[in-house]
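dude i think i finally got it to work??
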Amino acid sequence: MQFGFSHNQTCTIESWGCFVADLEIDCQKPTLDLAKKCLKKVPKMEDAQQYKVLILDDNELQKIDNIDSYLKIEKLSLCKNQLLRMYGVCRLHCLRELNLSYNGILTIEGLKDLSYLTHLNLECNNIKTIEHLNTNVNLQYLNLSENSITSVSDISFLKNLKELLLNGNRISHLKQCDKYLPQSLETLTLAKNNIADLNEICTLSHLNNLNSITIVDNPCVQMSGNAV
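look at this
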């Protein structure tokens, strides 16, 4: 699954506050595309609240300041920046899709009031623990691949979760996954971890809806000579 944003209707900005008028705004999902603008701060916009989609990929952002002026956005992408924290999104109560991949984020935070969130992409950060998702019960897609997670935390309350990507972490066991993972899961990736005991896959037997699982490049697979 790709974490996608529509690029059909965009407003292009060369620098802060300087418009290049190429506006064909979709009245349903007006998009502001500020990718690859060398931005160090999120620019303030007088008409910020008209946008539903905000793209800030591939900039030089270290903080998410001014983001709360875009209170009505439903999709936000901030991948490939220099972010260490994600707390700045906490007031974006309309948010449904959030992409913070390829940053330096250390912990999951600031999502308590984002009850509409369905897609969360935190791929390729420095997250060590799956936490602070208790109120995000509408999540359907959670990408935590390529982080530093050592164990699977209890996310059984995410009863709408269909896709969980945990490949490229440091997970060494699947103990209590029979209690910790929601039965709604359809896709689970555990490739490139440190799982040593192939028998622990049995803890996933309760996942009746699971139709795709990947555990390739784990010690348990390499020792058995199998690829799953």
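The first helix runs from residue 177 to 180.
im so relieved honestly
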